[in-house]
Amino acid sequence: xxxxxxENMPLVRExxxxxxxxxxxxxxxxxxEALREADVLLVRSVTPVNASLLxxxxxxxxxxxxxxxxxxxxxxxxxxxxISFSSAPGCNAQSVLEYVLSSLWFxxxxxxxxxxxxxxxxxxxxxxxxxxxxxxxxxxxxxxLCDPLRAAQEPDFPHTDFTTxxxxxxxxxxxxxxxxxxxxxxxxxxxxxxxxxxxxDCAIINASRGAVIDNQALLTAQQRKRRPLVxxxxxxxxxxxxxxxxxxxxxxxxxxxxxxxxKARGTEMLYQRCCELLQQQPRMSLxxxxxxxxxxxLQLSANFGLPDVQNLARMLYDxxxxxxxxxxxxxxxxxxxxxxxxxxxxEYSALQLSGPALPAWLDSLGFSRQ
Length: 370
Hints:
Elements: E1 2-6, H1 12-16, E2 21-25, E3 40-43, E4 62-65, H2 75-80, E5 84-86, H3 93-111, E6 120-123, H4 127-138, E7 143-146, H5 148-153, H6 162-168, E8 171-174, H7 192-197, E9 203-206, H8 215-224, E10 229-231, E11 250-251, H9 260-278, H10 286-289, E12 297-299, H11 309-316, H12 319-329, H13 335-340, E13 352-354, H14 361-365, E14 368-369
Parallel strand pairs: 1-2, 1-3, 3-4, 4-5, 6-7, 6-8, 8-9, 9-10, 10-11, 12-13, 13-14
């Protein structure tokens, strides 16, 4: 069996070698000719999977994307050819949560906020948004939740419509998939009209998809009145709107979900789905393949409390590192190089905590107990 995989998919050879021959490719630039012999195709968000890409392949059985979002895959076309498909929902949700928490703590320090007195609006309350909501509640941050799909399906869901959220939130964090059509489109959800409705100092965090925010409208608004801004995703990646960079408090190269565990978990989920399709018992597991973390165990005293958590979290991840890398390398090496060369980052769960009285809310943030 011929397995073709994005070269930036971690542990793909370790997981899939027992199923067939693994060939890797440049996901941003791959062409149809290169994939003509693929039985299994494994991609990330940079590869549009459609009739054009698969035009020279008549043997493909399975397409998997090691991402939560699926807008880069023409699922109707795959179904028309009876090609099985799977994504990796929730694979990097913890990684994105840690990125957003690090950003919130950075903004709170820079602008001298008390987060307990700021209303956080979460737009899109799926795998990532729900995890952020759980963590925010544990930290005592007031919430507004906007998810019209969940509101339609769950009578008790505490939905706030987007316009109202824009008017009332002090911080807005976007975690919605990119939808250009359908009942709940999210393309340019935050446009010039809604930007004008925000509180003057309302902070914006986007770690979902770049086109959820109209980047040109955002630049125009920032030039008139600057507000706190964190962007991990951009329109037209990798050819982003560079004039927007000076107006960002934090800017990164679509790496919020790029923890070691987050990326490798996506590979594992596709491996498990492929084994199911082939009716084979999975023989590899992520736990057996992950490297030993640099920091394995930490003991907390009984004096550890909520004010100390950001210092604990920064031992494992500080978003300021990624912002510095972005600003230094974006005009030289470029966007895709930053993603491909991203330094290893471990999730909170890699650090085993012990102590006489560990606070229960640490679990809500994703930490592990020894």
